[in-house]
Write a structure and sequence with these properties.
Layout (H helix, E strand, L loop, with lengths): L1 E9 L13 E7 L5 E10 L8 E5 L2 H8 L10 E5 L2 E4 L2 E5 L2 E2 L2
Parallel strand pairs: 3-5
Antiparallel strand pairs: 1-2, 1-4, 2-3, 4-5, 6-7, 7-8
Length: 102
């Protein structure tokens, strides 16, 4: 699992039926300091996350597919599994309510 921030919704005119009624989100990965690492992913929204929210991303194909409860061989690699209220690293609060603390 990884921590990320939702940047925006991805729109596609043609997609796999597995994504029917589900949004795809562009998410920047965050480091343990709460700052972007420069890496990103496109994840299936499973928790109704919105732009700017800090989220927990399950970035492993098989586990991601299991979370969606659909086709075992579906074309899914990453799923937004939760919205992060607070991130504490080594006793220090790094993220609270979506804001990175200095």
């Amino acid at each position: 699992m990884k921590i990320g921030r939702v940047v925006k919704t991805v729109v596609s005119t043609i997609h796999n039926p597995l994504f029917e009624d589900r949004r795809l989100l562009l998410c920047d990965y965050l480091g343990t300091d709460g700052k972007p690492t420069g890496d990103y992913t496109i994840a299936v929204d499973n928790v109704d996350a919105g732009a700017g929210e800090v989220v927990l991303i399950l970035d492993e194909g098989n586990s991601a597919r299991q979370m969606l409860g659909k086709e075992p061989d579906g074309a899914v690699r990453a799923v937004v599994a939760g919205i992060v209220d607070e991130l504490v690293v080594e006793g220090a609060v790094v993220v609270r309510d979506g804001d990175v603390l200095e």
